[in-house]
Write a structure and sequence with these properties.
With 175 residues, the chain is an alpha+beta fold. It has helices spanning 60-67, 98-102, 120-125, 134-138, 144-156, and strands at residues 22-31, 34-44, 80-83, 86-90, 93-94. One of its GO terms (cellular component) is plasma membrane.
């Protein structure tokens, strides 16, 4: 039995592509003749918080992997993905600069791989490593701005009060 989930209803009002933080048009992905994403259209404005909710196997992780450039859409009718005004992929082909784009795209895998012995804040700061000199990263020398941005991110998701707590003490939902 093949179940198809059409998430095209997500877009409710026309928006200018130039203003979208995320813009997806006509995204299709199949795995062994089973459709995971069908003609998906999605627009998210900068600063907008969106919850991606659906049953197991409905394509949530597949969509996120496409946004981060970790998966390619179908070539024949694949569609287009843009993040922060830059093309991630189009018609099943990743942008040649996708590795550079990923430096500006955060993606947390389902298996979070947090460093349990580090604090929650330190785990967030690890996301800066790709944008700083290796010697600073090796010594964990994060500057004030990086720490402030990490704290702001924790505050945004309601975890600022847990910043100094070991990651191993977080509940599954907090992770």
């Amino acid at each position: 039995m093949t179940t198809e989930y059409d998430l095209s209803w997500v877009v409710r009002r026309p928006r200018s592509l130039m203003n979208d933080a995320i813009h997806v048009q006509g995204l299709n992905k199949t795995f062994s003749h089973k459709s995971a994403l069908v003609d998906l259209a999605l627009s998210i404005q900068p600063g907008e918080m969106v919850a991606l909710i659906g049953a197991s196997g409905s394509g949530k992780s597949t969509l996120l992997r496409h946004l981060a450039g970790l998966a390619c859409c179908d070539r024949s009718n694949g569609g287009q993905v843009q993040v922060l005004g830059r093309e991630v992929q189009s018609s099943g082909r990743l942008n040649s600069q996708v590795r550079r784009l990923r430096a500006d795209i955060g993606y947390i895998f389902q298996q979070f791989n947090l460093v349990n012995r580090l604090s929650v804040l330190d785990n967030v700061l690890l996301g800066c490593l790709g944008r700083m000199p290796r010697w600073r990263g090796s010594l964990a020398l994060f500057n004030r701005e990086e720490k402030q941005r990490a704290m702001a991110a924790l505050d945004r998701v309601g975890l600022a009060d847990l910043a100094t707590q070991r990651a191993s003490t977080l509940s599954g939902g907090q992770q």
